[in-house]
Amino acid sequence: MALSQGKWVKLEQNGTGPGARSSHAISVVGEKAYSFGGEFKPRVPVDNCLYVFDLNDETWSVVDATGDIPPPRVGVTMVSVADTIYVFGGRDATHKELNEFYSFDTRSNTWASLPTGPPHRSYHSMTADDRRVYVFGGCGDNGRLKDLWAYDVIDKEWTEFPLPGESCKPRGGPGLSAVLGKIWVVYGFSGEELNDVHYFDPNEGEWVEVETSGEKPTARSVFSTFGIGKYIFVYGGEIDPSDLGHLGAGKFSSEVYVLDTETLVWKRWEDGSDSSYHPGPRGWCAFAGGQRHGNEGLLVYGGNSPSNDRLDDIFFFTPYVDAC
């Protein structure tokens, strides 16, 4: 594969949507995006509604869901495998870290509470392949974490993998991506912004820290990330944290970078999007890889701005990848 050009598109929003928020989660099933959780005021969960956005007609609605509906939370993650969405962890209105695990069947609009495995946490990262859901890191009851867990959606069992070595610090807000059979941990925050890259090979049962080169992104956390083929894309994030922690806005990035996981070379993405169609600098977004009009890309919704205002806009980034 070889990279060519790509662009951002700002989507219109009709209907009843979540509104401005950050520290929420979004997941794409087919050509519909589901949003859950988040905050408008720092650390105060907004609601526990599940919203669905049709990527074709660009219309929001509130899902008429039944079953074990999760309570409101911030710092939550969600991913999809086939037609099912999986939601893990987060933090409630009392600032308690959670380890509840839920599934949502998009065919029946039904929530179900599932057995949990990983300890309590928020601001962790989650990714999936076609069979397993992976959870890494985050803020736990006793500080930041660096453990990796997998939930097998067929066997319905959790597996805890070996911890990485000392070079991989516990962290919140890292990038996590399942690419070419490996689980990649990219950057994150461990008292300072990090710029290291590690992967776990489930077949070998081993962690590896890799040295990357090229146009490396500045150290960052709470950014958006997704994988296509052998590539990991990184957009935005916090590159200089606020002295107020979660209560304030730090300095955010607006660039897109891509890591070739075979050559381990970073490249800054130079897209041709008009500035009015670009999401600009932000972090703490809801994001997910998915398809729109048959093209794979990155969906970014809301987040926090440099002025500490919560955002309510939605964008889709399409990187064109050609076979060669």
What can you see in these coordinates?
- It contains no helices and 29 strands.
- It has strands spanning 2-10, 14-15, 25-29, 32-36, 50-54, 59-62, 66-67, 77-81, 84-91, 97-105, 110-114, 125-128, 132-140, 143-152, 157-160, 175-179, 182-189, 193-201, 206-210, 213-214, 224-228, 231-235, 238-240, 251-252, 256-260, 265-268, 286-292, 295-304, 310-322.
- The strands form 7 sheets. The chain has a 5-stranded mixed beta sheet with strand order 2-6-5-4-3, with no helix packed on it.
- The protein is globular, with a radius of gyration of 18 Å.
Strand coverage percent: over 45%
Alpha-beta classification: mainly beta
Main sheet, how many strands, which sense, barrel? Answer: 5 strands, mixed
Radius of gyration: 18 Å
Summarize this entry quickly.
The chain has no helices and 29 strands.
In terms of topology, how is this protein built?
Elements: E1 2-10, E2 14-15, E3 25-29, E4 32-36, E5 50-54, E6 59-62, E7 66-67, E8 77-81, E9 84-91, E10 97-105, E11 110-114, E12 125-128, E13 132-140, E14 143-152, E15 157-160, E16 175-179, E17 182-189, E18 193-201, E19 206-210, E20 213-214, E21 224-228, E22 231-235, E23 238-240, E24 251-252, E25 256-260, E26 265-268, E27 286-292, E28 295-304, E29 310-322
Parallel strand pairs: 2-6, 7-11, 20-26
Antiparallel strand pairs: 1-29, 3-4, 4-5, 5-6, 8-9, 9-10, 10-11, 12-13, 13-14, 14-15, 16-17, 17-18, 18-19, 21-22, 22-25, 23-24, 25-26, 27-28, 28-29
